[in-house]
Amino acid sequence: MGVIVVIFVALVLLVHGYLWHRLVRQTTRPGRWRKALTWVLAGLLAVLVTTFVGTRMGLESWVAWPGYVWLAVMFYLVVILVVLEVPRAVAAASLRRAERRERVPAPVPVTVGGGTSVSSEPEPSPVPDLSRRLFLGRTTAAIAGAGALATVGYGMSSALGDPVIERVRVALPRLDSRLHGLRFAVVSDIHLGPLTGIGHTERIVRMINGLEADVVAIVGDLVDGTVAQLGALARPLKSLESRYGAYFVTGNHEYFTAEGPGEWIEELKELGVRSLRNERVEIGHQGAVLDLAGVNDVGGAASGDGPDFGKALGGRDTGRSTVLLAHQPIQVDEAARHGVDLQLSGHTHGGQIAPFNLVVGLQQPVVSGLARVGGTQLYVTRGAGFWGPPVRVGAPPEITLLELGG
Predict the structure, then answer these.
(1) Which of 81, 129, 215, 375 has an alpha carbon 20 to 30 Å from 229's alpha carbon atom?
(2) For residue range 95-144, what is the model confidence (pLDDT) as tens digits?
(3) pTM surpassing 0.85?
(4) d(C-alpha 220, C-alpha 274), whole Å
(5) How far apart are CA 357 and CA 396, in angstroms?
(6) Do 227 and 311 fall into the same domain?
(7) Which has the closest alpha carbon to 381: 175, 158, 167, 151?
(8) Which structural domain, as residue segments, surrounds residue 150?
(9) Strand 376-380 and strand 369-373: pairing?
(10) 246-249 and 215-219 as β-strands: parallel, antiparallel, unpaired?
């Protein structure tokens, strides 16, 4: 963890240095304005540090908002500026060529003994046109600034708005025909935390209840804090409605606090949500039975609370179809080895902030949507909340109504 912190701090300092070079040094002359903008950028760095330290100390949401918003703006400033590096370099090269042409002295005619000759003495080179360089720097900064602010504004409206209802039908070849039409409301990565407020939970519960699902599956990363900090935000979950109950499995964020997931398991029990802790239950529907299993997140392995597929899936009737709740898509390989028909996962947020979806794809087998891995079908929801910046670009929040078929 110490190494990660050092790398993160070094990266943040490097990014702010790059932004200072492009947005301050190359857009101002030495003087009052450059000093003022330097202090503004230093202040934003301090806000970012305060956010990361403050949220881990349980400070109020007003501490988190400015830092997380600046983190998103900073990210897109860097992305856009990097994209602009090539056209900016071409423009700068053209500017240098123009300045070199202006420095070539014209021949100076002189009179020698009644005749005219050309002097070889060069005139002093003109000073490079600083106004042109400032224009190039300011144009680049204006494009990057406008693009970053517009993108983050759009992303905030997406992250803080209603989740999209994705309706998906999944055909399971071994599924008993009497189970056709069984419906799961799948939600993950709600991320109750300092930026969400109770309205976030109430909206998700209202939307799930409107789906009239048979089973509610909460696939990890429900919270970013302790019951003492966030218990009030989770209380609307008590109003969840479904025919056969609401079920929960841990995500990696449930292990981020010193208290671990245990206190949240008890809290959810009080709210009527059953946690599947490397175990399974039978869902009876129209005279047929489906096995619904759940495994702990891989993040619990370090504390001895990791996934146990043998415990969750061993000894079952292999003639019955099995649906597995597992927070991370990467767990699907083990699920396939145990003959699971369908795994429901989250964790990826669909990338949350493009182009992070490209990075997520390097670590997880599926970023979002339905896919087949081995003999197991895998559905990965983008999640209904956000982590860090309240921004979603290219990956709107999602609640899924998943219907089983043959």
Answers:
(1) 215
(2) 788 777 776 665 556 555 555 555 555 555 444 556 888 999 999 999 99
(3) yes
(4) 13
(5) 12
(6) yes
(7) 167
(8) 2-103+130-157
(9) antiparallel
(10) parallel
